[in-house]
């Protein structure tokens, strides 16, 4: 098989959605989410296992019902800049909102991370579905869904323009000619669009990988279209094998329709493998993990996130699911629509909907090492993903996967035995973007 698996590591810290009780685990440091040494160890473990990237999620709104990790965590770009100095190969992907940032500042920060890491930075572009974030940025209302995605597209276009401010040979630093910068190689952006007016240029040159890698998590029609236009890596919803196949084929098809090479977009599904000595032991542990984290009040609060952190506790739990469709337009519209459709079709009460949000769902990547490797190979061969964004509860769980599953995949020729490159683009098999100002001769 010519295709090669890609893995990213998504650290939980003290526990995110679906892992609310993780902070109580004796092997999890109670300050993990704000301890830079925790992230350095995670990144080094990922690098030892030849993973493509460390992936850091983020949001800019909380209330007291949010998971422990969300309540007290480090800002992604600050975190990743520190991690960069303790790693050499693993990519460093940080989440940042296109709704609550300005293009110049964010482009500069990601370009700085790209230089600090030697070309290993990636930006996970999100539009923010937490409606309460608006009040942290002086706005009365969260932008509607369509506007957020139009803004995101323009934001990425502006950032990419700024990253091309200097041509690659702009700094001759020629002492004899007294020429540090060749001014003909510096270019003002002069962007004026629907959402942004940015003069440029950026005061930072391109890194060894040209530009940071753009990631996105498109689920809705607007999200899938944005991903097909600008993303080079995607964090996909997963689901069943058939659902993952449909999503994979749809994104690759949309990418081609926009004139892009479908091979230049890598799709990662979420995976939380549970590995044990036997299949039975792994399935038993999977069920134990669910029971450790299953809590009705938390599930009710989690339900509210799709509706702008709405507090459902004010409603009668045994009455029909309330009419809150109007809250979804400025929140997590796709997820909210699915919840409403299921509640309506089955005539569910609020209690039943909250219970269904937290119901036990088996992961496909659970079992003895050989079983997990077999499942990964089957899904990969079936065209469901290019890689998996892996999440493990503890370091021990990560070790079980790396020591048990990875060697099997390597023996089958599905996974690398060394890094092929020094940059995130190189390891993902993505091309270096051609500077838009480079001459035709220089591009050949």
From TrEMBL:
Domain Luciferase-like: 31-383
Database matches in InterPro entries: Diverse_substr_monoxygenases, Luciferase-like_dom, Luciferase-like_sf, NTA_MOA
Signal peptide: none
SUPFAM superfamilies registered for this protein in UniProt: Bacterial luciferase-like (SSF51679)
Keywords annotated in UniProt: Flavoprotein, FMN, Monooxygenase, Oxidoreductase
Organism whose genome encodes this protein: Streptomyces endocoffeicus
Family annotation (Pfam families): Bac_luciferase
Name of the protein in question: LLM class flavin-dependent oxidoreductase
Family: Belongs to the NtaA/SnaA/DszA monooxygenase family.
């Amino acid at each position: 098989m010519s295709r090669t698996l890609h893995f990213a590591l998504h650290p939980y810290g003290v526990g995110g959605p679906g892992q609310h009780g993780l902070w109580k685990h004796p092997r999890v440091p109670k300050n993990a989410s704000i301890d830079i040494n925790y992230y350095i160890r995670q990144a080094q473990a990922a690098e030892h296992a030849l993973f493509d990237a460390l992936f850091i999620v983020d949001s800019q709104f909380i209330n007291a019902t949010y998971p422990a990790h969300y309540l007290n965590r480090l800002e992604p770009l600050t975190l990743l800049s520190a991690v960069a100095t303790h790693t050499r190969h693993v990519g460093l992907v940080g989440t940042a909102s296109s709704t609550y940032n300005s293009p110049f500042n964010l482009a500069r920060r990601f370009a700085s991370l790209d230089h600090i890491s030697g070309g290993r930075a990636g930006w996970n572009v999100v539009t923010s579905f937490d409606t309460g974030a608006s009040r942290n940025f002086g706005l009365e209302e969260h932008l509607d869904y369509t506007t957020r995605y139009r803004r995101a597209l323009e934001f990425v276009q502006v950032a990419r323009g700024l990253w091309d401010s200097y041509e690659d040979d702009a700094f001759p630093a020629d002492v004899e000619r007294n020429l540090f910068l060749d001014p003909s190689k510096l270019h003002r952006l002069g962007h004026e669009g629907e959402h942004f007016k940015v003069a440029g240029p950026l005061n930072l040159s391109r890194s060894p990988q040209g530009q940071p890698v753009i990631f996105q998590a498109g689920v809705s029609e607007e999200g899938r279209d944005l991903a097909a236009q600008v993303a080079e890596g995607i964090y996909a919803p997963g689901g069943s094998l058939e659902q993952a196949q449909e999503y994979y084929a749809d994104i690759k098809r949309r990418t081609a329709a926009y004139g892009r090479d479908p091979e230049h977009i890598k799709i990662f599904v979420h995976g939380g493998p549970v590995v044990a000595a036997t299949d039975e032991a792994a399935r038993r542990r999977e069920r134990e993990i669910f029971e450790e984290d299953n809590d009705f009040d938390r599930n009710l609060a989690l339900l509210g996130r799709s509706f702008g952190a709405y507090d459902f506790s004010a409603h009668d739990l045994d009455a029909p699911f309330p009419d809150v469709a109007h809250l979804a337009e400025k929140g997590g519209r796709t997820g909210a629509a699915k919840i409403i459709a299921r509640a309506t079709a089955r005539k569910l009460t609020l209690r039943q909907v909250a219970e269904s949000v937290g119901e036990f769902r088996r992961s496909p990547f659970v079992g003895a090492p050989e079983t997990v490797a077999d499942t990964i190979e089957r899904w990969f061969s079936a065209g469901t993903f290019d890689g998996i964004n892996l999440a493990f509860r503890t370091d021990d769980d990560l070790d079980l996967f790396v020591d048990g599953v990875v060697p099997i995949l390597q023996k089958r020729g599905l996974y690398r035995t060394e890094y092929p490159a020094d940059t995130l683009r190189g390891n993902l098999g993505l091309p270096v973007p051609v500077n838009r100002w480079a001459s035709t001769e220089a591009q050949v």
